[in-house]
Structures are given as C-alpha cells and as structure tokens.
Design a protein that fits this description.
It is a single chain. The protein is of the alpha/beta class and 153 residues long. Helix content is 22%, strand content 31%. The chain has 2 helices and 8 strands, in the order H-E-E-E-E-E-E-E-E-H. The strands form 2 sheets. Strands 1, 4, 7 and 8 form a 4-stranded mixed sheet that branches. A 4-stranded antiparallel sheet has the order 3-2-5-6, with no helix packed on it. It is elongated, with a radius of gyration of 34 Å. It starts with a helix and ends with a helix.
Length: 153
C-alpha cells in the first residue's frame, strides 16, 4: 500500500511539474498593433518613424517601419493609444487606437501624402547702446503739393 501511495504521489508531482512548465512557457496574452505605411501610389515607405503614446500614462514607445513599410507594437495593455507617423517630405498622420481586449491584434494602415519640408528658424538680436550724437537723425518736410501727387499715383 505504501508503494501505491508513493507511485500516486510521484505521478501527481510529475503532473504538477508539467503544468508548471507549460504555464511558464505560455506567452502572456497582450494586444498587438501592427500595420503598414505607403504613399499615395501604394508604394511602401520604409524608415517612417511610428510613435505609440499611451494616453492614460503618457508613456511613449517608437519604432521604424521596415523595408516593406510594416511596423508592429507588441505586449500592449488594454487602453487608449495615439498612433502617429512622421517622415521627412511627407505629411504627418495620426489615429486614436482603442484596445479593449488583451488578445486583440489591430491592423492600422497609413497612406501618407507628399508634404513640404518644414524648417523653423528663430533669430534673436540684442540692441546695443547707441550714442545719440553718433546716430544720424533726419527729418524732412513734405509740401502739401507733393503729398497730393503721391496720392494721385
């Protein structure tokens, strides 16, 4: 009887070990967002920067579209996200994505339009002190006839 109990206990411990290994090896369920990016003609746009912002937490991750224009974000939790693309020479595009299920896989495709290259230049200067005697001062008097002639033009 002791031998039967020992065999039953060993069988249960093996079963427990197998279940434990299967549980550890199983991937955690998490949502994915994937898609492709193309231009207006349908041509793939590699190298486009794709950003995914979790609106609730403010956490942002980014990736770059591969040679075929595809991108993928994995292991996402349920929530609202902002998906945005940017590429020099093309318009920016973005969409709001709502993940409602841990096992969900969403496919979001973008078609980017040709855009202009934007550059922002800021110029600032400080005015130095000037000596009033060195700065030329000019005052002219214009006669009424001259003003009428200019107004007629």
């Amino acid at each position: 009887m002791y031998a039967d109990s020992l065999l039953a206990l060993m069988g249960m411990s093996r079963l427990f070990a197998v279940l434990l290994l299967v549980g550890l090896a199983a991937p955690a369920f998490a949502a994915d967002v994937q898609g492709s990016i193309a231009d207006r003609t349908g041509g793939a746009l590699p190298g486009v920067v794709v950003r995914l912002l979790n609106i609730a937490t403010g956490q942002q991750v980014s990736t770059t579209a591969d040679a075929s224009g595809h991108f993928r974000f994995s292991n996402l939790k349920v929530g609202r996200y902002r998906l945005a693309t940017s590429q020099v020479g093309f318009s920016e595009a973005s969409r709001t994505v709502l993940i409602t299920d841990d096992s969900q896989t969403l496919t979001i495709d973008f078609e980017l339009e040709l855009g202009s290259v934007k550059a922002e230049v800021m110029v600032s200067a400080a005015r130095g002190e000037r000596d009033a005697e060195v700065v030329p001062l000019r005052a002219d008097t214009i006669a009424a006839d001259a003003v009428r002639e200019l107004a007629a033009v």
